[in-house]
Design goal:
This is F-box domain-containing protein. The protein has 15 helices and 17 strands. The protein has 455 residues and is of the alpha/beta class. Among the domains are: 92 residues, no CATH class; 183 residues, Leucine-rich repeat, LRR (right-handed beta-alpha superhelix) (Alpha-Beta Horseshoe). The strands form 2 sheets. Strands 1-2-3-4-5-6-7-8-9-10-12-13-15-16-17 form a 15-stranded parallel sheet. It is globular, with a radius of gyration of 28 Å. 32% of the residues are buried.
Length: 455
C-alpha cells in the first residue's frame, strides 16, 4: 500500500467502512498501524465523505499513525478537524494544501505553522490555493524551514507580506519556485542579499511584464535553468510602443541567464486588436536567441516567421528538443503581406541543425500554392515525431504537405494544425500508411543485398 487515495480504503479494513464504529468504539491501533506503516503517499483529494470527526478520532492514536509517510495531500476535512499534525512524522518531505475553499475559508497560516513545527525538515510545500484567502504569518513560518527546496503557489494570494520575497530569497536550498502575482500587486524586494536565490534552478511566475522583469533582476544569471512565465497584459500597454519596450527589456533580461535550457513565455490575451510592425515584433522575439543552451522553448507571441528567421532560430538553438511558437490572433501585424511567411520547406533548417528535436510547432505556410521545389531529403533517422502548424488556415494540397514533411522528417508519427482536424488526420495517414511504407519497401532490397555481401 504505497499510495493511499482514500481513507475509506483504510476504514474498510478496520470496520467495514462503518464510520460510527470508528468514532464510538475502541480502535485496535496496532492493526491500523500494520496497514498505515506501508503508506508513503497519502492523497486525500478525492471526495470520500469522511467527516472531520473521523480524522479527529484517528488523531488520538498513541503514536503517529503514518510513521513512514513521505508526501501528504491534505483534504479540507483533515485540515478543519485540527488533526493534520498528528498525521505527520519526521519522514514527511512534502505537504500539499487543497484549493476550492468556500467564502468562509479558514486561515491556513496556523495550520502551516503547526506543520513546520512538527516537521522542520520539510522540503516541499504546494499551495493549490484560491484567491482572496487568508494566510497569516507565512514569512515567519518559511524562515523556520531551512531545508525547503520546493515552494509552489498555484493560486493567487491576495496579499504577500512585506518581507515575503526577502524571506524566500534567503532559503539556502530553494531550487523550485512558483508564484502568481495579481496585476495590481507590487512585491517588496527590500532585504534581498547579494547571495539571494543562490540555488534557484526552476522558476514559474504569473505577473505583469514589469513585475516579472524586476523579479528576474534579483536572480543570479548563472543559476536559473528553467523559466515559465505568464505575463498579464496591463491596460496601459494598449499603447503599443510601451508594451514592446517593456517586453523587449524582459526578453533581454531573460537572455542573460546563460544556463537556461527551458523557457516558456505566454502573453495573456487582450480584448482589443493591437497593431504592430513586423520588424519590431521580430526584434523583440530575437532577443531570446542568445540562449544557446536552449532545449525547450515555448512562446505565445505575435511574431511572423520568414524562411531566414526560421534558419536563425535553428542555428541559434542546436540543442532543441521541443519548440512551440504560437502567434497571437488578436494582433494585426503591419507591413506584411498575409500570403508571405515561412514556407513549409523552411522546416528543413531544423532537420539540418537541431538533431535532437522531437516536437515542432511553428507558424509556416501550408496553403496552396506550395513551393515548386521539394526540400532536401533527410538521410538520417531524425527523431522528430510530431509536427504542428500553428498558423491559421485550411489545407488544400494534402499530398503536397505530406510529401514535404515526410522528406524532412522521416520518423513523423503525427501532424496537426489549428484548422480542420480531419485534413491533418489525412496528412498523418498519407505519411504513415503510404510514404513511410513505400520507403521501407524500397530500403528492404538494399538491406538484403548488404546482408548477402557480409555473408
Amino acid at each position: 500500500m504505497q499510495v493511499l487515495e482514500s481513507m475509506r480504503t483504510l476504514l474498510s479494513k478496520l470496520s467495514g467502512d462503518n464510520q460510527k464504529a470508528i468514532v464510538k468504539s475502541r480502535i485496535h491501533w496496532n492493526r491500523m498501524l500494520y496497514y498505515t506503516s506501508r503508506v508513503r503517499v497519502l492523497s486525500l483529494y478525492r471526495p470520500d465523505h469522511i467527516g472531520a470527526s473521523i480524522y479527529a478520532r484517528i488523531g488520538e492514536a498513541p503514536q503517529c499513525i503514518f510513521p513512514n509517510l513521505r508526501k501528504l495531500c491534505a483534504s479540507h476535512s483533515l485540515i478543519s478537524s485540527g488533526s493534520l499534525p498528528f498525521f505527520l512524522s519526521d519522514s514527511v518531505l512534502s505537504v500539499e494544501f487543497p484549493s476550492s475553499y468556500g467564502e468562509d475559508a479558514p486561515d491556513l497560516g496556523p495550520t502551516l505553522s503547526s506543520v513546520a513545527r512538527k516537521v522542520p525538515t520539510l522540503e516541499e510545500i504546494i499551495l493549490s490555493y484560491g484567491e482572496s484567502r487568508p494566510f497569516s504569518s507565512f514569512s515567519s513560518t518559511l524562515r523556520t524551514l531551512e531545508g525547503l527546496r520546493v515552494l509552489q503557489i498555484y493560486g493567487t494570494l491576495n496579499h504577500y507580506e512585506k518581507d515575503f520575497i526577502a524571506t524566500i530569497s534567503n532559503l539556502p536550498k530553494l531550487s523550485n519556485l512558483s508564484l502568481r502575482v495579481p496585476s495590481t500587486t507590487h512585491l517588496n524586494y527590500d532585504g534581498i542579499r547579494k547571495s539571494g536565490f543562490a540555488s534557484l534552478k526552476r522558476f514559474s511566475i504569473g505577473a505583469s511584464i514589469d513585475e516579472a522583469h524586476v523579479f528576474l533582476s534579483k536572480i543570479p544569471s548563472t543559476v536559473l535553468q528553467s523559466l515559465e512565465m505568464t505575463t498579464w497584459m496591463d491596460p496601459d500597454f494598449l499603447d503599443l510602443p510601451t508594451f514592446l519596450l517593456s517586453f523587449n527589456r524582459l526578453a533581454v533580461k531573460i537572455s542573460t541567464f546563460s544556463l537556461l535550457t527551458r523557457c516558456c513565455v505566454k502573453l495573456s490575451p487582450v480584448q482589443a486588436a493591437l497593431y504592430a510592425s513586423d520588424n519590431d515584433l521580430w526584434s523583440a522575439f530575437a532577443s531570446f536567441l542568445p540562449l544557446h543552451e536552449m532545449q525547450v522553448f515555448e512562446c505565445a507571441f505575435p511574431v511572423c516567421l520568414l524562411d531566414e528567421r526560421i534558419e536563425s532560430i535553428a542555428l541559434a538553438w542546436p540543442n532543441l528538443e521541443r519548440l512551440v511558437i504560437t502567434p497571437a490572433a488578436v494582433w494585426d501585424i503591419l507591413k506584411l503581406d498575409p500570403h508571405i511567411g515561412a514556407t513549409i520547406n523552411s522546416v528543413s533548417h531544423f532537420a539540418q541543425n537541431c538533431p535532437k528535436l522531437e516536437y515542432l510547432a511553428v507558424p509556416v505556410q501550408v496553403h496552396s500554392p506550395l513551393p515548386d521545389i521539394l526540400p532536401d531529403l533527410t538521410f538520417f533517422a531524425h527523431p522528430l515525431h510530431t509536427f504542428k502548424c500553428t498558423l491559421p488556415g485550411d489545407l488544400v494540397d494534402l499530398d503536397g504537405v505530406a510529401v514535404r514533411l515526410d522528406r524532412v522528417f522521416p520518423s513523423l508519427t503525427h501532424v496537426e494544425g489549428n484548422f480542420r482536424a480531419s485534413a491533418w488526420e489525412e496528412v498523418t495517414r498519407i505519411i504513415r500508411e503510404e510514404l513511410q511504407v513505400v520507403r521501407t519497401e524500397q530500403q528492404a532490397p538494399t538491406r538484403v543485398a548488404l546482408g548477402s555481401q557480409e555473408g
